[in-house]
Amino acid sequence: MEKSLKSTAVNYGIYLALGLVLYTVLCYALNIELIVNFWINLLLMPLIIITIGVISSAKSKSILGGFMSFKQAFTAYFIPIAIGVTISTIVTVIIFNFIDPDSALYIKELVITKTQGFMENMGAPQSEINKTIAQMEEQDTFAIGTQLRSLAQSLIFFTVIGLIVALIMKKKDPNEA
User: Fold this and answer.
1) C-alpha dihedral over 145, 19, 45, 91, to 10 degrees?
2) Which of 121, 138, 120 minimizes the C-alpha distance to 129?
3) Cα-trace Rg, the chain
4) How many independent structural domains does the chain possess?
5) What's the pLDDT at 174?
């Protein structure tokens, strides 16, 4: 049974990876500005990722006859997310560091411009805006180290959500001691 749980989770991880990679490649090819879209990156994408984790956990619960431990529920949730987000990060690093580093610079400028406009609209003091922009200009958003740090932060965030999902999804078999 444990093997089918893990293979189901891996399959969902591959589906998630394909979806995230397809999104990145389509944005890159059709409208690179979507890569820095606030609503997509901070709301829609995490919601999609979490949904895939929940679906994987629910499917695994079904495979296991409606009963699963906390560990099984968390494993079924986390494996697809870890696979999907990691593969997506690798593709992003390849595109913006090796295939087209100029696009990375363009995206950085877009982010700086959007941040500056946002801060001005919020009434931030010019000194704070200048400080923030200077810090952003020093960062290499698509550097391998930066992307690995971002990956780790994402996995920590999704782990916390996964712990909650596992608490909800677990169900002890009353026939077991």
Assistant:
1) 10
2) 120
3) 20
4) 1
5) 83
φ and ψ at residue 145, rounded to 5 degrees:
-60, -45
Residue 177 domain-assigned? no
Task: Using pLDDT thresholds of 50, 70 and 90, give the confidence band for residue 18.
Answer: very high
Q: Report if residue 107 sits inside a domain.
A: yes
pLDDT at 177: 59
Please give the structure tokens belonging to residue 35.
């890569």
Four-point Cα dihedral 113, 115, 118, 123, nearest 10 = -110
Of 45, 78, 85, 60, the closest CA to residue 1 belongs to 60
Residues 6+ apart with CB under 8 A from 100: 28
pTM of the full predicted structure? 0.91
The answer, yes or no, to whether residue 146 has pLDDT greater than 70, is yes
Provide the pLDDT confidence category of residue 41 given band limits of 50, 70 and 90. confident
Buried b (16+ CB within 10 A) or exposed e, 62-84: eebeeebbeebbbbbbbbbbbbb
Of residues 140, 118, 109, 116, the one with CA closest to residue 130: 116
Enclosing domain of residue 118: 2-169
C-beta separation of 68 from 171 below 8 A: yes
